[in-house]
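User: For documentation purposes, I need each entry recorded in a consistent format: the amino acid sequence on its own, followed directly by the corresponding structure tokens. There are two entries in this batch. Please keep commentary to a minimum and don't merge the entries.

Assistant: Recorded as requested. Entry 1:
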Amino acid sequence: MRSALLTCAIAGLTAVHAIPTIKAKGSKFFTSEGNQFFVKGIAYQLVPDDPLLDAKQCKLDADLMKEIGTNSIRVYHVDPEGDHDECMKTFEDAGIYLWLDLDTFDTQIEQNSPHWNETQLQAFQKVMDGFHQYDNLAGFFVGNEVITKENGTLSAPFVKAAARDLKSYRDSKGYRKIPVGYSAADIAINRPMLQNFLACGSNSSESIDFFALNTYSWCGDSSYSTSGYNKRVEEAKDYPVPIFISETGCNTVPPRDFADQAAVFGKQMSEVYSGAMVYEWIQEANNYGIISYGPKVDPESPNAPPDGFPRSGKPTPVDPDFANLSKQWKTLNPTGIKESDYKPTATAPACPSYTSAAELQWLVNGNDLPTVGATYQASASATQSSATPTGGSNNGEGQPSATPKQGLSPGSPVREVQGMGLGLFGVLLGFFWWM
């Protein structure tokens, strides 16, 4: 009897401290307790390699994140060989979930000459193997802003093939149904087609489990309509999988008031969008941080970080941005719908057809996906059709289409300029990563 009571007591303690897991159902996320889940997150990549190895730093940051209502972080790169137990437990105790990019430092899917091979697949699998066991692992990204150009859509089938193969691997290993999705750059000329392509087709095992968008179109004294957020909702109102903003926080008109959060978590968007992630936690050269670890130092001084911005220590709020975000989030707590009451009705969208029109360009026809080991071979017609279109690049709403970050950006360290060659891009990538 005593043994049985002890077993029940231990089970009860486990249930109290365990965090509910996240799953995708229809166009929404739900916790294992049956509550709809809205992402209220922050991009978190303190160092170029892996921010989830320093348990002391994770604790300092998680405590401050919890104060402002953060429930998610996004990490762009990890070392799958590292020990992440303490950091993951720290964030779990704070009620914070991880959304993790699967690509490592040299395995990302490329926009130029795209390919999906066994080396990439095994590297992605290794990250999944290292993190699937954490209950606060909310989802995996198979790519971040792979397509950054108007004519970059020939790489889209490789992104979708990666999602297909990682979902298949997840299921073959008996892992829980951790959602697998993609984070897209806000490129107006191909955004709606990419969004639909990744979810189209009759075979759900080949489609993404969620779609996310990096968008910086709400700047300064903007609005739901001026920013184009109303159009993003219209484009996604019948989308069959969850959609959320994976980077936001335009800083071209300082200080940032994060007024877009009221739209995202309010009645205007919460029926369609499942939250947003603010870019970013740490202050660095791009000036997007909401905390700092101390004043910038001379990069030439002894033991200084390469860019002069400290990357560990006590997190100190950057004001007024930190306070403004905190003020927004404290008043924004959508409850959504209970899973037991939710009956999804949306079906997969039609796969977009090839078009090279100036206003909308999609260079993929149908839903044929490459197998592992495939490499894109451009035919004469395909090469001709993928030439960069003339004219400027914007999202049709008076805002730049590519993410307007500069300096160190963990997801895409350099925003690729229209027409830039791969060689120059590689040089700049290395330069900006360490500046």
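Entry 2:
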Amino acid sequence: MAMAAARPSMDVAVVLEREAQPNAWEDWRFRIAEVTRQQDAFGSEPRLLVDDGRIARWLFPALQVALFRDEGEGYYLNLTSGRPVWFVMWRVDDEDPSRASVQAVSLSYNEAGRWLDAQERVDNLPLPVDVTQWLTAYTDEHYRPEPKKRQRPASFVAPDARPGPAGMPEGKE
């Protein structure tokens, strides 16, 4: 039995920034400051990089971005958006709202949409050229958009063939 080829993936690190009292209505504001390729020096555990009392930055290393064939449409949508991006899902700590953590990183527009549908926080940052090329090569090899099918306007369909309220042609109930 032959072994399946390893799934294409890369390890990345995310820098999450927290701003203290950015305005009268917020105690804390978080934003994704950077997504970069993982380096050995980053280690594998999250750590505080800097905290001057107003701005704090945390590094969340060793996050894997893997490519899946069934996410091809999501990669295609990301690439054809005009500005391909990293999608970063993060959460504020339930017990300490001054802390947040990065949960996952994806390149799929559809996966980011599912996260948003689940009420998760998702930010994005532009992809560097080398990652865009990597994603493009994978998408070109594994995804073919379905051709669009033109639907005839209802006014051009015979009245007895038009769908009724339950999706059945009128008069055929």
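Summary note for entry 2:
The chain has a mean pLDDT of 90.
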